[in-house]
């Protein structure tokens, strides 16, 4: 490391119940609003499922990003695969390498679990996210269809 470079102050760790306010804030920035209590419930769900992970990127004691990962068995592939179900870096921390760091962390977790395929879905309007994923070595895959089941 050059003498004028400082170490990355970002810490990536598993989410805890105490992160609920930050998780709610970040999910809201991503376009999925929830309150602190709802975020706490989501964190509890993830903590109770060994095939799910919710990681927080933290700087100076404040959450600046999150990524969630769900490992599932794919009949089509005959193996487990990992799905990134959310990735957000706070507006004030973007373009600082935090998103790439979070992706690397889930890639490490996936490899440790014996997973060789990671999928991520990104809405068609999120052109910046698409460029980001391509720049991180992800390629376009299948077209996704969604049907909401209402009452």
Descriptive overview:
This protein has 151 residues and is of the alpha+beta class. The chain has one domain (11-135): Gcn5-related N-acetyltransferase (GNAT) (Aminopeptidase), CATH 3.40.630. It contains four helices and five strands, in the order βααβββαβα. It has helices at residues 20-30, 36-47, 98-112, 127-135; strands at 11-14, 52-59, 62-74, 79-89, 118-120. The protein has a five-stranded mixed beta sheet with strand order 1-2-3-4-5, with helices on both faces. α3 links the parallel β4 and β5. α1 (20-30) packs across α2.
Brief account:
The chain has 151 residues and is of the alpha+beta class.
Measured distance between first and last alpha carbons: 58 Å
Q: What proportion of the residues form beta strands (DSSP E)? A: 25-35%
> Which geometry do the CA atoms define?
globular
Summed up, the domain count is 1
Give the strand tally: 5
Major sheet strand order:
1-2-3-4-5
Cα gyration radius (Å): 16 Å
